Amino acid sequence: MRQNRLGRSALTVSELAFGAAGIGNLFTPVTDDQAERAVTAAWDAGVRYFDTAPHYGLGLSERRLGAALRDCPRDEYLLSTKVGRLLEPADADGTDLAAGFAVPATHRRVWDFSADGVRRSLADSLERLGLDRIDVAYLHDPDDHAEQALDEAYPALERLRGEGVLGAIGVGMNQAEPLTRFVRDTDVDAVLLAGRYTLLDQRGLAGLLPLAADRGVGVVIGGVFNSGLLAAPRPGATFDYATAPDHLVARALALQTVCERHGVPLRAAALRFPFGHPAVASVLVGTRSAAEAEDAAALLHHPVPADLWAELRERGLLAPDVPTPARER
Question: Considering just the CA atoms, what is the radius of gyration of the chain in Å?
Fold first, then answer.
């Protein structure tokens, strides 16, 4: 699998990244064995970039990912996790389903973008992962904590990067405009943008992606299927984890019709689309099983002809100024 440099950092990432929220029991349970087989299948397919977070399953994702990668050569893959939510023990009964994870509610999340919080978060993550280092640390969803993230968390990460503890610093969010501020006002190496640079939603192109390209910041794109609508477009499908409005369902179905005419699964076009922009280094796909890992790798390598992108433009399904991949894959 192709490896791309992550912005101006010295790190490289595989074009396909393994999103580990699923093996943290996102929405439904996954067994330890299923989680390990998912990571192994991704590795066998050439994936060398794995992303997790304390938030995912109250640490379960980190524990499972670390266990699955423990026997893999450490210098052959890149691992990212996130800071901003500390996990504090809790005596609550029930599960964490209100936050989206089918795990016992043994801990509660506490927002903390202080310098001490960053150091503690990374130390806790290393313990759960059982690995010797974290390559990339993302500030995770600092939407409502932007000032503390900029004034305290980012400088703490910058010191750790300067000391060689981290290879790169990133910010991960679902919104493009706040990410643009971090790219403009800090020296981050990467941003993880979820759901805002897809076949249905190109808001990331308005300011973030051109600025990232200009400043040498690597972009990782998540949510390329917009939580389901671009995976299986139909009435009642989800878009950004809510029921998709009719006009977006109609647009997704129109995209699918064009793709089918060119013999390309819509999901393959959705996965390949972000690589049209030069700032994009990797596309992250949430994966919870070996079958999903193998499917994502197959989609990445499915040929997507230039004529498909041209027809999408002709039919007004892509704007003329939206960049598309230059060659068939």
Answer: 19
Q: Which of these is catalytic: 56, 138, 154, 197?
A: 56
Q: Tell me which residue has tokens 């980012």.
A: 154
Q: Is the pTM of this model over 0.70?
A: yes
Whether the Cβ atoms of residue 288 and residue 31 lie closer than 8 Å to each other = no
**258 near 317, Cβ under 8 Å?**
yes
What is the pLDDT at residue 326? 83
154 is catalytic: no
pLDDT of residue 88: 97
Rounded Cα distance between 82 and 264, Å, is 35
The confidence score (pLDDT) of residue 328 equals 54
> Three-state SS across 89-107?
ECCCCCECHHHCECCECCE
3-class DSSP assignment, residue 125: helix
Burial class (CB in 10 A: 0-12, 13-18, 19+), 31: exposed
Q: By CB neighbour count within 10 A (0-12 exposed, 13-18 middle, 19+ buried), where does 237 fall?
A: buried
Q: Are strands 49-51 and 78-83 parallel, antiparallel or unpaired?
A: parallel
Cα 104 from Cα 93, distance rounded (Å): 8
Given a contact cutoff of 8 angstroms between Cβ atoms, the answer to whether 82 and 172 are in contact is yes
Structure tokens at 68: 């699955």
What's phi and psi for 108, nearest 5 deg?
Answer: -125, 150
User: Furthest-apart CA pair in the chain: how many Å?
Assistant: 58
Q: Running along the chain, 329 residues long, what does each successive block of 10 average in pLDDT?
A: 96 98 97 98 98 98 98 97 97 90 97 98 98 97 97 98 97 96 98 98 97 98 96 95 95 98 98 98 98 98 97 97 81
> Which residues, listed in sequence order, are joined to residue 284 by a DSSP beta bridge?
17
Looking at the DSSP assignment, which residues form a beta bridge with residue 220?
A: 192, 282
Please give the backbone phi and psi of residue 305, each rounded to the nearest 5 degrees, phi first: -70, 155
Instruction: Using the Cα atoms of residue 22, residue 27, residue 32 and residue 37 in order, give the sign of their dihedral.
Output: negative
Residue 76: how many other CB atoms lie within 10 Å: 8
State phi, psi for 145 to the nearest 5 degrees: -135, 30
